[in-house]
Design a protein that fits this description.
The chain is an alpha/beta fold. It has 15 helices and 12 strands.
Length: 389
């Protein structure tokens, strides 16, 4: 369906109707599939026959979600996983081995930092974290066995914007692949594969679902890489459930509409926050004050729906703002239709060291807002109480 526009792909890609000719995508809640005979069973298990085998790695509902997301990202293939973190783990285990080296941007989501810096290190995989927006730092970090560059743009929670094309060129020059976490923008606002990335990873839990209902993840990109991820998933089993895939599949239908609406509210909120006396700094790519504003406007269709800001008074001041809200949800999740607020230093990045937080710019006064679909007037009023001191 490559001839269709984004909005058409969002509601039509991946549809394969059953004998009942249903209009909505079917939900196949089954753990296994029946074969016509022993020869067919053998052919399915060997891969000679591409039919369904076992829901750990083949399911029509999951396939539909994978095909739709691949179409929206412009990727050759997609593998859906149980969560965003399982997508990153699956990619790493499929492409790396003991002795290999990873170059990763600083300021990654806390769990991603833990995965590369602690868990993979136990298996002999070394990671060098570099300043996110410095191309020379990526180049200088290369080692003889550098196999993977991993970046998150915009970053969580400071919304640093990385030049994808520049990092892709650096990665490819040393024979490595570039993976981009596209969670904050989604393909509605940014398509990293078109800028040279080899694969994109998603926490589908966030904007792809869009209503905070289920967990899911995905790896999208070049088929040769995605096929290796599928081999790992088939054996290790960090699989998405068909129900979760179905929910995300339906969420994709409204992805662009939601992202544009939430981004429009986010820029209004960010501009308002810049004018508040209790706010020391606002981080939002759509603002002219953002250090990578020009790059963001070239790579992204808008500034996105994440607004982070620092308040006076450190943790005490930040917690006062959080605790003063009456409508905004106090939760670390993002990408929901409901606006959420969190204090990264004590939640999403609370498990990494104080030194790592400092290096990533995660201060005690930092707050992250994931803007939902409420009226901007109500969001301003909810934040104003805590900012007034």
């Amino acid at each position: 369906m490559s001839e269709y526009e984004f909005d058409t792909l969002a509601v039509r890609a991946g549809i394969a109707r059953s004998q009942f000719n249903e209009h909505s995508e079917a939900l196949y809640l089954t753990s296994s599939f029946v074969f016509d005979n022993a020869a067919q069973a053998a052919a399915r298990f060997s891969g000679a026959d591409e039919g369904n085998v076992y829901a750990r790695f083949t399911n029509p509902t999951v396939t539909a979600m994978q095909q739709r997301l691949a179409a929206l990202e412009g990727g050759e293939a997609c593998v859906a996983t149980a969560s965003g973190m399982s997508a990153i783990l699956s990619l790493a285990m499929a492409t790396l081995q003991a002795g290999d080296h990873v170059v990763a941007s600083m300021g990654l989501f806390g769990a991603t930092q833990q995965l590369f810096g602690t868990i993979l290190a136990k298996f002999g995989i070394e990671t060098t974290f570099v300043p996110a927006t410095d191309p020379d730092a990526y180049r200088a970090a290369i080692k003889a066995r550098t196999r993977l560059f991993f970046i998150e743009t915009p970053s969580n929670p400071l919304t640093e914007v990385i030049d994808i094309a520049a990092v892709a060129e650096i990665a490819h020059a040393c024979g490595a692949i570039l993976a981009v976490d596209n969670c904050f923008c989604t393909p509605a606002l940014q398509r990293p594969l078109e800028m040279g990335a080899d694969v994109v990873v998603h926490s589908a839990t966030k904007y792809l679902d869009g209503q905070g209902r289920v967990l899911g993840g995905a790896v999208v990109g070049k088929k040769v890489i995605v096929d290796e991820v599928l081999k790992f998933l088939r054996t290790a089993g960090p699989s998405i459930s068909p129900f979760n895939a179905w929910v995300i599949l339906k969420g994709l239908e409204t992805l662009r509409i939601r992202m544009e609406a939430q981004s429009a509210t986010a820029i209004e909120l960010a501009r308002w926050l810049e004018q508040q006396a209790g706010v020391e700094r606002v981080y939002y790519p759509g603002l002219a004050s953002h250090p990578q504003h020009e790059l963001a406007m070239r790579q992204q269709k808008s500034g996105g729906a994440i607004v982070s800001f620092e308040v006076a008074g450190g943790r005490e001041g930040a917690w006062r703002v959080v605790d003063s809200t009456r409508m905004i949800s106090i939760t670390a999740n993002l990408g929901d239709a409901k606006t959420t607020i969190t204090h990264p230093a004590s939640t999403t990045h609370g498990r990494i060291s104080a030194e790592a937080r400092a290096a990533a710019g995660i201060t005690e006064g930092l707050l992250r807002i994931a803007v939902g679909l409420e009226a901007v007037e109500d969001l301003r009023a909810d934040l104003a109480r805590g900012l007034a001191g």
